[in-house]
Fold this protein.
Amino acid sequence: MENNKWYRKSFSGRSLLAKILLIGGLICGIYFLLFFDTSVQVPEQEFMGQTFGGERVNNIGLMQDRQNGIYLGFGAAAVGLVLEFLNKRKKVEN
């Protein structure tokens, strides 16, 4: 057989963890950044012939959840990126 190293490539636990954190963190961060809705519907009420409510308003609790999700997602992606960088650096030294 030829002396090619590409078929002997194996994943270490740290490498797998780094890839999971990087991909999962990016998916989580992008979801909270682009798709998470922080508004809620206000019920419509009628009082003395006037109609009040019926529109959407921002919910502070949902805004905090969105902020935490963005921090957690992109933070996990950053940790995964650092772990992957350290794995590549360790392989080059060997």
Residues 13-93 form one domain.
